[in-house]
Specification:
The chain has about 210 residues and is of the alpha+beta class. It contains eight helices and seven strands, in the order βαααααααββββββα. It has one domain: set domain protein methyltransferase, domain 1 (Alpha-Beta Complex), CATH 3.90.1410.
């Protein structure tokens, strides 16, 4: 996937004053990269752009089943687990970044906290971290790569090739016709994706 087809952190900086305001005001975010991407996504998803066909494929309905959007009675399913505390901590961190965002970049004050959380979850569950062609660590949305399945045993490598200036996919071993492509994900799969796969291994977010 050529670099120009990636939605990179750097492209969001060109779109708004996020990086400039952060540096001038010396703002300390909880998750600056994901907040910058989420802010860009929150604004551009609301209007037609070259990214619209890709954005329209996001499973918004499924993302809204994440525990962050639970109603009070739904939390009863989590009683007896340590997930309630982890969820509240996650919401507090999201609220901190949201409050900083809308108080420093006023155009985002029209978006609700729920809308911000939705877009942050999209980023958390789909963005890839890598080192770009300038040897800078960055994050980006990589169309189609983020539709690859997650699993404990990956059969595909995804990485940025600095020589070719593209995001490259390569098979680790022979993949049979009809076999699912899999990559590893973060240990907090339960928080980001709201499911637990017994074949994925022990999830660090639940007990």
């Amino acid at each position: 996937m050529p670099e120009e087809n990636l939605l990179t952190l750097e492209s969001t900086y060109q779109f708004n004053d996020f990086k400039k305001i952060t540096e001038i005001k010396k703002i300390i975010w909880e998750e600056p990269e994901q907040t910058a991407l989420a802010a860009f996504l929150m604004e551009t998803r609301a209007k037609k752009s070259n990214w619209s066909p890709y954005f329209d494929m996001f499973p918004i309905g499924i993302i809204r089943t994440n525990p962050l959007f639970f109603k009070e009675q739904e939390f009863e399913y989590l009683i007896g687990t340590d997930f309630l505390g982890k969820l509240q901590k996650e919401k507090d961190l999201l609220k901190k970044d949201y409050d900083i965002l809308i108080s420093n970049i006023l155009k985002y004050s029209i978006y609700s906290f729920e809308e911000f959380c939705l877009n942050r979850l999209i980023i958390a569950g789909r963005a890839f971290g890598f080192t770009d062609g300038h040897l800078e660590k960055t994050q980006a949305l990589v169309p189609f790569a983020d539709f690859i399945n997650i699993g404990a045993k990956k059969n595909v490598n995804c990485e940025f090739d600095r020589n070719k200036n593209c995001f490259e996919f390569s098979a680790i071993n022979d993949i049979k016709k009809g076999e699912a492509l899999t990559i590893n994900s973060s240990p907090t799969v339960f928080i980001n994706f709201w499911f637990f796969d017994e074949n994925h291994g022990v999830d660090g977010s639940i007990q």
